[in-house]
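Hello,

Our lab assistant flagged a job as stuck in the queue for most of the afternoon. It eventually completed. Since we weren't sure the result was trustworthy after the delay, we are filing this so someone can double-check. Below is the sequence as submitted and the structure that was eventually returned. Let us know if re-running is recommended.
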Amino acid sequence: MPILPPSELILHDDGSVFHLHLRPEELADTVILVGDPDRSNLIASYFDRIENSSSNREFRCHTGTLNHVRLTVVSTGIGCDNIDIVMNELDALANVDFATRTVKPRAAQRSLRIVRLGTSGAVQPDIPLGELVMSAVSGGIDGLLNFYAGSEAVCDRPMEEAFVRQTGWNERLARPYFVHNDAGLIELFSDAAVNGLTLSAPGFYAPQGRVVRLPLARADYLERIERFEHDGRRVTNLEMESSAIAGLAALMGHRALTVCTIIAQRVAGDSRPDYAAFVRRMIETALMKLTRRV
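-- returned structure --
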């Protein structure tokens, strides 16, 4: 079994992983991801008991229990580049023996249940502010998954080809990819959220079709995304993390889903900057579902 050198898997002297500052025993099997560190604190405030907490840069982690179910909540900051850090370190915590710096035997590996709770903008007129959208399919125009071997096995290539063709995708941009999320988690949230196709962008402004002072390279960019349709699916919302979570989870053998509350209606040109009530409803819905005993 190859030994992972300190340059590839960086550990602190206390045995915690480099960015998240968590030790393997401090990670629950169910992980909630949020962007905002304050939202990590908010979710932890619902726990019956908190076992441990850590904070480093934008990464704020809490592990505790709610309704006798052990949970870890991690704030990721913004963007797929941060998700690359978080997903790799979560997987290392679950599936690498830190003492020997070797990958655990398959029989000893853990499959995590990972749910991102985020905010997003709707690109279809029938999805109102405050609606919950779950990413049954996550599309990425961020390019991250294309750096990893094996992506062909987890991506929906016919959907990719249809997207490139229908949008007239610029070859100078990252190649899009599409990943189906975990069927069990989709079923779990099926009565609470719109079944959606979420597109993750590498930025908040031009990559999501927003214009402040700088014009878009293609003026009808957002309209082309809105019109895309494949196998009965359309792009429902835009955000910045779902694709990397879905793709890396699929490659690593974890179960993932993104659920977002809509705080901007791009077609109507409307937004809700004060969205705290929407976020609380999403959090309470997710916690109820993730800790419900069957």
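-- support follow-up --
The delay was a queue issue, not a problem with the job. The result is valid. The first helix runs from residue 37 to 44. The chain is about 25% helix and 30% strand.
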